[in-house]
Amino acid sequence: MISKERLLLDEIATIETPTFKTAIAPIVDIYNSHEPEYSINRFLQHVSTEKEVRDASTESETLEESFKAETLLRRDVYKTIRAVYDNKEEMDSLSDENKRLVQQMELEYRRKGAALSEDEFNELTKLNLKLEELEVSFQRNIDSRDEKTLFTRGELEGLPDTYFKDREIRDIGGGKKYVVSTCSADYYLLMNHAQLESTRRAMFLVQNNRCTDNVHVLNTAIQIRQEKAKLLGYETHAEYALEPHMAKTPQAAYDMLTELRKNLTELGSKELEQLEQLKRADMHAVGKIYEGFFEWDRSFYANKLSNQNFSTSNLRCYFSLPQVIRNMFELYQTLFGVTIVEMENPRVWHEDVEMYELWEADKETFVGHFYTDFFHRPGKSRISVHNIRSGYNDETRQYPVCAIVACFAKPEPSTPVLLHHTEVEMLMGELGRVFQNMLCKTKLAKFHGCKALEQDFVETPIQILKDFMWSPHILDKIARHYKTGESIPHDLVQQLQAAKSNGAGLSYLRQVFLAMYDLAIYNSADTVDANTLFNSMNTDISLISCGGTRTFVVAKLGYFIKHTLASKYYAHLWSQVNSADILHSCFLKDGIDMSEVGMAFRTIVLEAGGSKDSTDGLSMFLGREPNT
Q1: What is the CA radius of gyration of the chain?
Q2: Contact predicate 355/333, CB 8 Å
Q3: Which residues pair with 179 in a beta bridge?
Q4: What's residue 309's pLDDT?
Q5: Alpha carbon distance 488, 497 (integer Å)
Q6: pLDDT per position as a tens digit, 441-491
Q7: What is the model's pLDDT at position 394?
């Protein structure tokens, strides 16, 4: 497939007077033809029972990604695409979807440097190689700096007995001390449960001083990304990074974050007062002076407050997997006007897999089919949705195929799989991703489903559906006791909602801080010191300080150096703001028929996929501009 595509691009690069028909349509045709094969090759690494097949699938994906990167660097192909793009008469004659395709192709190639001169292109290549090396170096430093520290059993008071099972013990000065590492399993359990502040503080400092070299690595990457942005014609890297997304500009993202911060600070301050009261009580109980609330206290007291208020473990009996799936299917059928039909004896890759057909509600129009593969087996990936074949309208309709994969434990003979509420929420969202793919109706496979959406919008439809799992009205339909069939009691739902709100202000302020910091380091023309700025902004926005200690938290956070994430931390919050707007002004508004809203959302937003700007789609659905 790669050889055929490379030959096609060679031919296209030589067209003297290119048009959409002679230059763009052949690329569309070969993409439509090859895309299912690429998708299946990628999919097998997540589900195959044979290691050789999974390895081959991974290798195939690597080759595919390498070829895609190579393609976007072809300046000869870009010249042909640009000629079509610059032909106003030709562009005006195209359908909206075809015009958007040409515009996106031109943008993709140009953002990779295809419009640069040869000398500029060579300089860009050098900068990209340096960034790749820095990204690898940053992660290598994290992986190789797993520090260890020693504590007595008394210093680890509050940790469960299982924490000490098979743990290394060292004899230090005639006393026994337990070895605790900075790996996630050790660190987070200690920070959640260690009762002594001195222990939490010591562990926090070890964890956040172990990769100090990475500050220089990040500072260098920030500088190089600014150079790269300038070379490509942008003022800053943030301006470059946000261009193809809903926000479009760093200022739009910053405005949204500023508004969020303003709305959250009062709530966060009240929550901090609650946590401080708990710590003051603990200090008073042991005769110590309260000296402040610090980062090493955050997890411990948030966990303590949560345990005082509500435990979600007693909800599992209302969330048996078979019942949850059945009720979610009914909800989706009502919401989007479809019918789900389970297939008998389908040809599938494993005996646990089930296959479904999706039809319009009238059962006369076929939509596509999807698979569910829910139970754990060796080599299988975590919960995720995989597009196996895109739906698109060529001369005939090509029907979509996708699969949802998870790793739930298999049921016992007498007891079904019982889910935690967080798993129910995640399952609802991932099933939503299935329907987002299945219901898309675009002419071009390139614009089909989730893969074609802007990074700061792709989670919006999913977040709406996940939030349904906190609505009393919806939970009444989903949650049934696996033995009695009784609906979940309303008082439990109220407690669940209250638990969701616990610490929400401080939690979201932390996310706002990280997003604002991400923009700050990449939207400045001046040189910044990543660590100094991180520490000052953290206290100012998150409200919780590091107690004057010298720490390098940013040196172990990979978000800010990865090329796929740099300047885009805001995207999740942008999606959540949009989803909350849609949910409360449309789906959960009093007196609203959810099926009517669902069908409108399907028709205007989901069916469009990436064939139109998501801001335009949301504005059409809401009847106004989104409230970001």
Answers
A1: 27
A2: no
A3: 150
A4: 65
A5: 13
A6: 999 999 999 999 999 999 999 999 999 999 998 999 999 999 999 999 999
A7: 76
Q: Please give the Cα distance from 505 to 271 (Å, whole number).
A: 7
pLDDT single digits (tens) 277-310: 999 999 999 999 999 999 999 999 999 988 766 6
Q: Kindly list the distances between the CA atom of residue 319 and the CA atoms of 315, 338, 340, 423, in Å, as whole numbers in the listed order.
A: 7, 24, 21, 9
Inter-residue contact 566 to 518 (CB < 8 Å): yes
| Integer Cα distance of 45 and 384 in angstroms | 13
- Cα distance between residue 272 and residue 190, in whole Å: 21
DSSP state of 246: S
Torsion of CA 358, 457, 111, 92, to 10 degrees: 70
Find all residues with CB under 8 Å of 229, minimum gap 6, and list them.
Answer: 235, 236, 237, 239, 240
HSE of 73, CA atoms in CB hemisphere, 13 A: 13
Helices 75-86 and 96-111: angle between axes, nearest 10 degrees: 140
The CA–CA distances, whole Å, from 358 to 322, 328, 600 equal 19, 14, 19
Q: What distance lies between CA 74 and its chain's CA centroid?
A: 30
- CA separation for the pair 241, 249 (Å, rounded): 9
Residues with pLDDT less than 70, the chain = 308-311
Cα dihedral 157, 159, 160, 166 sign: negative
**How far is 283 from 276, CA to CA, in rounded Å?**
10
Closest CA to 258 of 587, 512, 598, 614: 512
Q: How many residues does the chain have?
A: 628
